[in-house]
Amino acid sequence: MGGPVSEAGPRRIDSPVEVAASGAEASPRLIDGPADAPATLLLAHGAGAPMDSPFMAAIATGLAERGWRVVRFEFPYMARARLTGRRAGPDRLPKLLEAFRQQVALEGNARPLILGGKSMGGRVASLLLDELASADTAASDHLTGHPIGMDPITDSPIAGSLIAGSGIAGSRIADSRIAGGLCLGYPFHPPGRPEQLRTEHLQTLRTETLILQGERDPFGRREEVEGYALSPRVHIQWLPHGDHSFTPTRRSGLSEADNWNAAVAHADRFCRERLSPCSDKA
Questions:
Q1: Cα distance between residue 72 and residue 51, in whole Å
Q2: For residues 267 and 80, what is the distance between their CA atoms, to the nearest angstrom?
Q3: What one-character-per-residue DSSP string does 41-86 give?
Q4: Which domains does the chain have, with CATH numbers?
Q5: Which of 56, 106, 224, 241 could form a disulfide with 248 if both were Cys (CB 3.0 to 4.6 A apart)?
Q6: Which helix (H) or strand (E) holds 267?
Q7: 60 Cβ contact list (under 8 Å, min separation 6)
Q8: How far does CA 191 lie from the centroid of its chain?
């Protein structure tokens, strides 16, 4: 596929990659994959590692090789750290959410979007999924004068539409360009503090979301997570013997590359299912 492509005139920063400045705070972006891809995966990094970490690069490159357009971006605090050379902790959640919203806005309406990221980046994406999907639906209603998939005369679902026959409250979210969420190692709780759960919104999430999780992830081990009450729209795929970055134990006989490749395969399958004409995107 070649290397990442910048969007607005590349510039060199403290990294061996070329990036483009975009958005209100000139957040760097890296783009992999074909321009005519059926969808874009918009991925944010985790709290401590940048968008071009080995993990993020492996996932982005792997998905691009399978035909997806993958956009990686950095939150303002990480972009500043690149320029100054001084590490800093993440911005407050409201600023992270707004930065992600800006990146979604940059993508426009050219193709469906799957929002996600590594650890903290995936959590921020998951907090925005229903909000952005609902906003798309409301905008569509305003422009057309009636909901997509609804007969404007009878105000009933059109046969064959994504709404018809779904029987699920809030299924209008299917009208959105937001096709799903992809969390790469979700931080269900801080390590060693399983009582401090970050799952409240995951209990009612209406947008189909795939969480790829290492079985021994200290932010949420398999035996813990399987006891959580999560929305039926949240699907968890376990990476065997994997930690927070899916790295397996030596005894497992698996390599880091094995689990990273498996993660790419699971993510690719999820994306294809979300774009399938028979998929219920409610």
A1: 6
A2: 30
A3: EEEE--SSS-TTSHHHHHHHHHHHHTT-EEEEE--HHHHHHHHH--
A4: 11-275 (3.40.50.1820)
A5: 241
A6: helix 256-275
A7: 4, 30, 32, 43, 70, 72
A8: 22
| Bridge partners of residue 43, in order along the sequence | 72, 116
The pTM for the full model equals 0.82
Q: What is the SS3 assignment for 40?
A: strand
Picking from 76, 256, 268, the residue whose alpha carbon sits closest to that of residue 182 is 268
Would the pLDDT of 148 be above 80?
Answer: no
Q: Which residues contact 244 (CB under 8 A, 6 or more apart)?
A: 119, 185, 214, 217, 218, 219
Segments in 85-181 forming alpha helices (H): 93-107, 120-144
Q: How far is CA 179 from the centre of its chain?
A: 10
The alpha carbon torsion through 87, 245, 117, 279 (nearest 10 deg) reads 180
Confidence of residue 138 (pLDDT cuts 50, 70, 90): low
Evaluate whether 127 touches 97 at the Cβ level (below 8 Å): yes
